[in-house]
Amino acid sequence: MATGSAAVGRSCLAGFVDPEAAKCTSTISSRQTIHFPNHRNHQRLCSLSMNGCQGDHPQLPLGTIETRSFPAVPSPSLAVDTLSSALSQLKANPPPFTSGIIRLQVPIQQQIEAIDWLYAQNKLLPRCFFSDRAQTGNSKLSIDYTNGKLNGQNPKKHNKLVSVAGVGSAVFFQDLHPFSYRHWKSLKRFLSTECPLIRAYGAIRFDARANISSEWEAFGYFYFMVPQVEFDELEDSSILATTIAWDNSLSCTLGNAIDELKATMHQISSIVLKLQKQVPSTLMLSNSHIPSKTYWDLAVNRALQKIRSDSALIKVVLARSSRVITATDIDPIAWLACLQVEGKNAYQFCLQPPGAPAFIGNTPEQLFHRTWLDIDSEALAGTRARGKSLSEDLQIELELLSSPKDHLEFTIVRESIRKKLENVCDSVVVEPKKAIRKLPRVQHLYAKLAGKLRSEDDEFEILSSLHPSPAVCGFPTEEARVLIAETEVFDRGMYAGPVGWFGGGESEFAVGIRSALVGKGLGALIYAGTGVVEGSNALSEWDELELKISQFTKLLKLEMPLGIKS
């Protein structure tokens, strides 16, 4: 399936589309496609391929979705040996199903950081990484990590999942059409509440109808993967796992899937060294901003004129792309490890399809977290730097709490999210209604919202309605989208889009801000945005952009201060 640019005008923006209006694609280790009638509308076509084999798409659930666990071992090398032996036995004694997905996992009796394991895998692609926020700990689900299944008891401390790294794809999903209900159903076919650790990790574009620029081509309009080989970091132990998917109706047999997985396993390194969280500064040869400072001033002032006119527009979030050219290639995983130092109260993530740069980030903003029917979301808006002393920090906090401009921006975000949750929830609780969330470099206004979905199918509705939020787009959404399309001349790609994972009984998505696209020969494209409301001024908003990208620019050795060139 090709991943070229979409020929749709910039003025036509949407994060998602009507479930009845799109094609869907899921891919297992291949991009060849087949077409088949969809269960909701037989005149629509969907595409699916597995290992380059084609056939009619089955409408029935997979024959089996299961997790098989093995005794704990002391080291990653012994875990690799155990899994390799298990794969051989699985091929010799296949299960009596024509389709399925099986996770094989081995606990490791030592805590190894998932980021260290990923760095050791010699840039195997595709790859992914997702780390939960430190203060939220683990899933609300009680998972027995010795067998990867749900249990009825409270989770013990050592059972908390800290972060996940994966390479290769047992299943990946990608399309040149906006993420739709059909894509979601196609993806969920491979997930089960009985196997909560089989998850699909990925991201969705901010603007699903804008032209895709060359640096984002390999991502398509969305990209999700169930890793072939996965490393799970727990609080005091680890798990190495492999996942195999097959479907005979597509002429993709279990034997073929096992052979492909074995080829990946041969490339897995069991030697995992501690990655330095501080890398030597990379020499920056040049940097440039889109828009430049001059055009930024014009854009902000134009937005303010629009807000002050008879337009319905109250807020718009304008973004900037900063291209940094370095003397040597940047290792995205090394950069991500450095971001972990500042990772308290934030999610770290990495997504890199084959032939693509890596999308990495350290975002504080949760889009939503679903556990069964329980749903949580957050409102985050308003930005200030941290103080150099405790007294200065408290003074800045009070200034942020009492700022009319920031209160307006924050209230727009919180109330928009509340109304969207109320559309699919019986009741919504907002607590706290307005507080401060402190990060190492910045602090924000913050509120937490919680509700209960009426149906699990409402998960797609929540995802499609919460994105884009006023925190990354504006309000009203459509008016803000149009102004962004008219103003910004670069492709946001997955920046400010949903990034996270789908599971059986649980899913979690962050907002892909505080992020960068890093690749060989590319240097880095560092993204940041800021909300424009009545009371904003261009200079302050530019300074806020500089503050937000400082976690990246601290890793660069500058020939001149960042921002002088434009």
UniProtKB/TrEMBL annotation:
Pathway: Siderophore biosynthesis; salicylate biosynthesis
GO molecular function terms noted in the UniProt entry: isochorismate synthase activity
Domain Chorismate-utilising enzyme C-terminal positions: 295-548
Role played: Isochorismate synthase involved in the synthesis of salicylic acid (SA) required for both local and systemic acquired resistance (LAR and SAR) while SA synthesized through the phenylalanine ammonium lyase (PAL) pathway seems to potentiate plant cell death. Also involved in phylloquinone (vitamin K1) synthesis. Has no isochorismate pyruvate lyase (IPL) activity.
Top class in the EC scheme: isomerase
Pfam families given in the database record: Chorismate_bind
Family membership: Belongs to the isochorismate synthase family.
Gene3D superfamilies: Anthranilate synthase
EC number: 5.4.4.2
GO CC, one annotated term: chloroplast
Listed name of the protein: isochorismate synthase
Top-level division of the source organism's lineage: Eukaryota
Main location: plastid
